[in-house]
Specification:
This protein is α+β, with helices and mostly antiparallel strands. 29% of the residues lie in helices and 24% in strands. The chain has 12 helices and 17 strands. The protein has helices at residues 6-15, 65-74, 87-90, 98-104, 111-114, 147-153, 187-198, 228-241, 254-265, 287-293, 320-328, 351-364; strands spanning 20-23, 37-40, 47-51, 56-60, 77-78, 121-127, 133-137, 162-169, 171-172, 176-183, 204-210, 219-226, 249-251, 276-281, 298-302, 307-312, 333-338. The strands form 4 sheets. The protein has an 8-stranded antiparallel beta sheet, sandwiched between helices. A hairpin with a 4-residue loop joins strand 3 (47-51) and strand 4.
Amino acid sequence: MTPKTEDDLARIVAEADAPLRIQGGGTRPIGTPTRGTVLSTSALSGIELYEPGSLTLVAKAGTPVAEIEAALAVEGQRLAFEPMDHRGLLGTTGTPTIGGVAAANVSGPRRIQSGAARDFMLGVRFVDGRGQIIKNGGRVMKNVTGYDLVKLMAGSYGTLGVLTEVSLKVLPKPRASGVMLIEGLTDDLAVTALSRALGSPYEVSGAAHLQKGLDGAPVTMIRLEGFESSVAYRAEALGKVLAGFGDFTLETDPAKTAAGWEYIRDVMPFQGRDGDVWRLSVKPSDAPGVVASLSGAEAFYDWGGGLVWLLAPEGSGVNAASIRAAVGRIGGHATLIRGNTSAGAFQPLSPAVAALQDGLRRKFDPRQILNPGLMTQGQAA
């Protein structure tokens, strides 16, 4: 089922007498496979409003992300939360849509500076489990009515309603970008260096560490964006702050810096490789210890260490139980992005949070027909 209008979608949901499997572009099937007839929002496509001077954009849920990025690029603007493209990692086809980005709260390396996808969502329209059309929030930055419900929909994975429209705040593109590269650091030292950089006044917009860079050696990456002179000044000043961690090089070639952060954003180190891929959300200072306790797994760090991407090869002895135990001890979250979901893709919730989540789902979807069986950690993503 691929409705072409919001009213058609509402009618389909209202008349449904069996579960529905909500799908946008079909590029990120994360979570326990849900039963039901596929209901696609891909035909609900198109940019409905774009006001560059107001930094606002409104698009139907099925609008391709590439179409939005192309329109923004003409005006020198961008989606600042840098959404990931899951296709290479998950081996999927299709087209990433803005509704899918919003429903999964997909946020990239720049989240540490700019915020997550939900922080840029000004308003939404969606169809709840009764088939009712609900509008929440607004189309401009001045209107913050219903902000909490807008954020609730971000990361709900279609379990509370089917998104039909998303209103977003956009930001200007920087004039220049520079990436400071430090080679040879251990995980502990790298996370310490990244934390020091993020704690500085030099406006770091990307902070990552690879155990194995393209040449096989560890590399630590720190991104600075802005005017060319500002990037140069801040890199020099930050180099003095990080002098104890070794020498660094500064890469300013636009194509190379963009490719480097796309490599991190889209988890390219683990693309085309066998094994389960996990996404761990932890306190940065705890990250190296968690990785060290999972011997046999390979990892790299984003968000200054707050996000760990983990590859657990088959036969490594690293499994869902060991990962969840390691993360659970320090109050983190572990999400299985690719692999066998028999143990559940999302971090088990505490009884209190599980009861809250169940209550919300019953409120928005009393018949339990929207993505049944898909349990999410929602706002923790």
